Amino acid sequence: MTRDEKLRFEVQGVLPFAGLVVWSLALVIVRVLYAENRTYVFLPWNLFLAVIPLGASTALRLLHERSGRPATFRARMPHVLLFAVWILFLPNAPYLVTDLFHLGTKPPVPLWFDLALLLSCAATGIALGFRSMGDVHEIVKTTWGRTVAWGFVVVVWFACAYGIYLGRFLRWNSWDVLHAPILRIAIDSLLEPHQHPRVLGVTALFGGLLALAYMTVRAHVAWVAAREHRT
Fold it and tell me: What is the torsion angle, in degrees rounded to the nearest 10, for the CA atoms of residue 151, residue 203, residue 125 and residue 97?
């Protein structure tokens, strides 16, 4: 594959997700212009944060395809940095689903429009997250095998669910991991689950949903590919 062909291939892979982002942003702009207020103006920022993990995973995948598994510590550093950015910001993608908490009657905009707006952003976040996970999933699978890769996927989705809890209920950002006592809270919630029912509930329910939904999408894609191969 030539450089131009590879570039075209990458652009084609990103275009559908860019379309979702543009559609969601357009709905926000329409709402602001129609209502003449700043309700939901936080959504573009949330969408931007949801795009970051896809950018990091794409860069990590391209780096892996070019150099393979690095042999030295120095060669590993770009991979490690990109992975760190990816894992820190990945929860921002499914986090967009929880913006549905803000849904309510807010005249003069009809409720159905706000529902469509929030659902569009939620769907965009899920799509970005699944595509981003797919990039890293393939890297782990080619490096350590299928079983390890699926175990990695499940663990990361539950970690994302915990990140959703931190963002929605504790109002922490991805970069707060550098100084916030996240690990201590996680350990406390495991040692004394009766004292932290919300964190365990959110982590279990959202983690299970994300893992099962991702598995379903992967299984369907594999089934379609197998069907096309047979025909």
Answer: 150
